[in-house]
Amino acid sequence: MAAVNPLVGVVMGSKSDYRWMSGAVRTLEEFGVAHEARVVSAHRTPDLLWQYGSEARARGLRAIIAGAGGAAHLPGMLAAKTVVPVLGVPIPATALQGMDALLSIVQMPKGIPVGTLAVGEAGAVNAALLAIAMLGTTNAALADRLEQWRAARRDAVLVETLEEHGAAA
Q1: Is residue 165 pLDDT above 70, yes or no?
Q2: Is 0.85 surpassed by the pTM of this model?
Q3: Is the confidence at residue 106, as pLDDT, over 70?
Q4: 106 FRET partner, CA 20 to 30 A, in 64, 69, 120, 138?
Q5: Phi-psi region for residue 98, left (φ > 0), alpha (ψ -120 to 50) or beta?
Q6: Are the beta carbons of 91 and 101 closer than 8 angstroms?
Q7: From the CB of residue 128, how many other CB atoms can be counted at a distance below 10 Å?
Q8: 102 alpha carbon, distance to own chain's centre
Q9: In the structure, what pLDDT confidence band is assigned to residue 4 with cuts at 50, 70 and 90?
Q10: Residues 130, 85 contacting (CB under 8 angstroms)
Q11: Could you give the CA distance from residue 70 to residue 94 in angstroms, rounded to a whole number?
Q12: How far, CA to CA in Å, does 71 sit from each of 8, 102, 103, 149?
């Protein structure tokens, strides 16, 4: 979804990363948050990365969710080009199953922060929820929807029983 005035950018190093990053997009859609999703490769399209980061704030982005695998330079390079908060999602794209990306993203030098989430889809969904929480600090309706979403998950757990799964209590 490419919103006219997106508040959150969801970017990834390659189209194949969408397999994991789609959770962020679905979550933003569920909450009605205007967003855009696109491929911005740190290595194959460095000029586009530079432009995206340089223009993010002026375009009204309030958060960027950046997924990358392997060397995972995308989140850090975006963070170096903008003061818009960048949430990094390590993608399990190599034989190391995302550990290389996780270490790359989390080891940013002092002064260039990237909020680093879990490897894969769980990290992508949590990045979207974190972006929603950030937006909720100035949007009471969005914060209320997030509280309701969390309450629904809590209630779903409270009604579960182990007997339903063939386990004794």
Answers
A1: no
A2: yes
A3: yes
A4: 138
A5: left
A6: yes
A7: 29
A8: 13
A9: confident
A10: no
A11: 6
A12: 24, 9, 9, 34
